[in-house]
Amino acid sequence: MTGLIKSELFKICNKKILIFGLIAILLYAISNFLPYLIAEGYYPTTAYTDSGDILYGRAAVEYNQSIAAPYKGILDDNKIEEMMKNYKKTDENAIGLFPVNAGSLFLSSFYYNGELHTIAEVCKNITEPLRYGYNDSWGEYLYEMNIIMKMVLCLIMVALASVFSQDYQNGMILIIRTTPKGRNIDTKAKIIASLIVANIGVTFFIVLLSVAYYIFFGIEGWDTSIQEGVVNYFINSPLNINYLTLSVEEIILNIVVVNCVSIGSLLISYITKNNYASIIICLALFFFPNMPLLTRLGSTSSAGRILAFFPYHAVNAQMISGCRPIKIHGFQIQMFPILVMYYIIISIVMSIILLKMARK
After folding, report:
1. Phi–psi pair at 231, nearest 5 degrees
2. Which of the residues 21, 71, 292, 341 has an alpha carbon 20 to 30 A from that of 54?
């Protein structure tokens, strides 16, 4: 069994599409993070001081953190009005406030059309008190994770779609089928090897992204409410959770989804017995939930909640955090534990089906 697993690992890892795909995703991740280090104009690493000086990179991050620090804690309308006193109204930039830094960018969610709006008017889907703090990096971190996880899932589907079908195309299936025991062991080896590759890949990119953001931005703002993001990724979320909680939940869900998609790709590969058909079906099923007709439902609606049960949207923290909790006999259950259990059960069911089909 161990020998078969090593053999399958070698075959999967030796696929050119997997090697080139991993390099492409790595280059994408690096190219998206480098601007924070060397480019100007990116809001998390750019800040204007009261004197008109412009700061970049770590200096801008530290300045923005100092701007937010005095107001850290429970957010209310009085605190927002107090923050507004530090800025001048202007028509010279898109947000209408000067100087442009973490404070004015945050206030732009409440100050628009020349008026300052209340928390209740802006964050309409939540009634619990919100916590404010420096949060520039957290929204970007979760956004980048969403993009990278989608790329990883596509690569996994393409790489694993031929695991079984190639045996049919190269004639190896005739040898494997000589005994039922051989078919069963070979199938288990393929599943285990595929899951090892998928989990190493997803873990690598999660750790890489997390370490990069931690080194450059630190963990300041981890206890900030997710609705308080500069770019409004989560402003419509009905969940009263902070960025650290959402990040941990999304990492766990990403790993579960990757395992589910891996097993699903293997099952499709076994059924179709054709490399190209497997790849086309896997990708079509993956991208189908992103059709405009479906995405118009929105995650905050009851019908839109269904979208979270598709892998494409399950790795999107903005989508998951926008889902309203399900009410059952007076209890509210968030979508996160439901989705984790759902993907685990689906993975187990598909594994059982695949093993049973292999015995025939």
Report:
1. -100, 10
2. 71
